[in-house]
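lol forgot to send this yesterday, sorry. struct tokens for the thing we talked abt
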């Protein structure tokens, strides 16, 4: 590959990424505003939900707010919510998927369907886990949501616009990096060949996407979402990656909950359920 071709690929990636910046910024401003207005009230509902915790947790996780998965990990470690509620939050959390869908002008009905599906699947998984393992909240202690946010550096600044700009710059960098890498891969391998390879993996696709989703970084959801929008992976594979992707929630869980075997079991259930739902989706929608 010549230097000229590489430069053109990087320039294309940069222009494609810059095109999304205004939409990302507007989306993050709205998300930050809603977050500052509703976060404490939302978590008060979740922790008071009792046996209906997975229902409240899945709805809360689907609503884009700062550090939801991190907050859920703290509440679980404190005995405030059940493991089913924790998994419902993890599975329904959308991370950076929503801003990318909006910036790419994806049909609103598709966005609602995917966000709603994640919430429903998270709720069903949470109720099933609580039923099988008989977990109940013990209401031992509770951290205020603003303390959790500050401790995890998730960007809950008082200045909404500053926080939105910070998120926008971060996601722009991730999108540019991944777009550039994808452009180079397409140039070396060919778009048709790459798409054919990815579409020929009915089970392996969700399995690999689930592994990507485990990465505790916004790059994971960006990568999975962009691959789906580029028609390189199936709906089921994208759903697997997004369901498993709990942001920094897993990292926080391993920090605040000292029961390592329990943490590993939660990790295994999160991954296996996300991949299983992805495979089921592919069976019905291929």
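and heres what i got for the seq, position by position
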């Amino acid at each position: 590959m010549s230097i000229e071709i590489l430069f053109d690929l990087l320039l294309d990636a940069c222009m494609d990424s810059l095109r999304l910046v205004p939409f990302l910024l507007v989306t993050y401003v709205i998300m930050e505003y809603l977050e500052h207005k509703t976060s404490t009230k939302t978590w008060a509902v979740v922790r008071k939900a009792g046996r209906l915790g997975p229902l409240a947790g899945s709805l809360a996780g689907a609503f884009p707010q700062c550090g939801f998965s991190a907050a859920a990990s703290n509440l679980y470690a404190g005995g405030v919510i059940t493991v089913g509620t924790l998994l419902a939050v993890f599975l329904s959390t959308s991370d950076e998927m929503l801003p990318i869908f909006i910036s790419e002008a994806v049909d609103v009905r598709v966005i609602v369907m995917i966000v709603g599906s994640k919430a429903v699947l998270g709720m069903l998984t949470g109720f099933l886990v609580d039923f099988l393992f008989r977990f109940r909240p013990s209401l031992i202690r509770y951290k205020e949501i603003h303390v959790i946010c500050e401790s995890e550096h998730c960007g809950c600044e008082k200045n909404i616009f500053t926080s939105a700009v910070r998120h926008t710059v971060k996601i722009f960098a991730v999108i540019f990096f991944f777009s550039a890498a994808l452009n180079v891969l397409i140039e070396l391998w060919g778009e048709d060949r790459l798409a054919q390879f990815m579409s020929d993996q009915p089970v392996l696709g969700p399995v690999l996407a689930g592994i990507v989703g485990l990465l505790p970084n916004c790059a994971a959801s960006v990568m999975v979402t962009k691959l789906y929008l580029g028609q390189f992976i199936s709906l089921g594979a994208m759903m697997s990656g997004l369901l498993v992707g709990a942001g920094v929630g897993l990292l926080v869980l391993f920090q605040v909950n000292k029961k390592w075997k329990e943490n590993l079991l939660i990790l295994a259930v999160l991954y296996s359920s996300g991949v299983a739902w992805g495979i089921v989706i592919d069976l019905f929608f291929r």
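Residues 136-156 have pLDDT under 50 and may be disordered. anyway ping me if u want another try
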